[in-house]
Design brief:
With 264 residues, the protein is of the alpha/beta class. The protein is built from 10 helices and 8 strands. It has helices spanning 7-19, 24-32, 41-49, 78-84, 96-117, 164-178, 190-200, 214-220, 242-252, 259-262, and strands at 22-23, 53-57, 72-76, 122-128, 141-147, 150-158, 182-187, 209-213. A 5-stranded mixed sheet has the order 4-5-6-7-8, sandwiched between helices. Strands 1-3-2 form a 3-stranded antiparallel sheet, with helices on both faces. Helix 7 links the parallel strand 7 (182-187) and strand 8. The longest helix has 22 residues, at 96-117. The chain is globular and about 60 Å long. Residues 242-264 have low confidence and may be disordered.
């Protein structure tokens, strides 16, 4: 049964092609931007039944997924990839770890939109990175946004597993090529975060890098999350004023404090 594809359908295809895999909630937020997320479940099911989309249950456990049923993951079908003239994907999109990585990046984009809807930021512009291989040193996303009329441009690395030398190269190359003011590294747990902080502490790029875990951002949002420097110092990386925007790097290179001191 043929259907007339709408502009919204093409937008759904565009976002899935950009992120490679998405959940229904991601798609709802992305196509609604800062408005109330739309209900699109029936449309996604119809596009799946008509072979425009592939759909499967995620095979592993996602720690941020709270319902007993594993989430449905949507991908473009070969027919839709041909319709959009999309390049063939070299990643194994059925692999649990690959899906988790891609879904975490989509989560971050959605949380930026949540903060924008709540009026904490404005003019959010997101560009998803296109990784060519597992050893690709480019950022997973480039984001620009305004906070109290102060423009921020940041590059995001999601749970990088690179060695110290490659991580330093990746951060340095991204600052130069993406013209990013900040590099945000988001990790799945505090242990991995500390290892990366130790790897970059004292380096030439340390003052440009901030760290947070996914759990922290999911709990507090992007703006209100407690970001840390490479020296494990809590610092505000999203300025409230032009003066703070000028001095943000100074905060990141301040003398380290303990977690207890940071909350007193």
């Amino acid at each position: 049964m043929a259907i007339q594809l709408s502009d919204r359908d093409m937008l759904i295809f565009k976002f899935i092609e950009e992120h490679q895999v998405l959940l229904e909630k991601h798609i709802a937020w992305f196509i609604s931007c800062d408005e109330k997320p739309v209900l699109i479940r029936d449309r996604l099911r119809k596009l799946f039944y008509l072979d425009y989309l592939l759909c499967e249950r995620h095979g592993g456990k996602l720690p941020w997924w709270t319902t007993p049923t594993k989430p449905l993951v949507y991908m473009l079908s070969p027919m839709t990839r041909e319709l959009m003239s999309a390049n063939e994907n070299e990643n194994d999109l059925t692999d649990c770890d690959t899906q988790r990585h891609l879904l975490e990046i989509a989560n971050l984009r959605m949380l930026f939109l949540v903060d924008q809807k709540e009026g904490l930021i404005s003019d959010c512009q997101w560009t998803t990175g296109k990784k060519t291989s597992a050893r690709d040193l480019s950022a997973d996303a480039i984001v620009s946004f305004k906070r109290n009329n102060v423009l921020h441009r940041t590059a995001i690395f999601n749970h990088p597993t690179l060695n110290r030398e490659d991580l330093l190269k990746a951060v340095d190359a991204t600052i130069n090529s993406a013209h990013a003011d900040m590099i945000w590294i988001v990790c799945r747990d505090e242990t991995h975060q500390r290892l990366l902080q130790q790897a970059l502490a004292g380096s030439a790029v340390a003052s440009k890098v901030a760290f947070a875990t996914h759990q922290e951002i999911y709990k507090a949002g992007v703006v209100k999350a407690r970001w840390q420097s490479a020296e494990q110092q809590f610092a505000s990386v999203i300025s409230e004023s032009v003066a703070e925007a000028v001095n943000w790097a100074r905060c990141l290179t301040a003398t380290p404090t303990t977690t207890a001191q940071a909350f007193t």
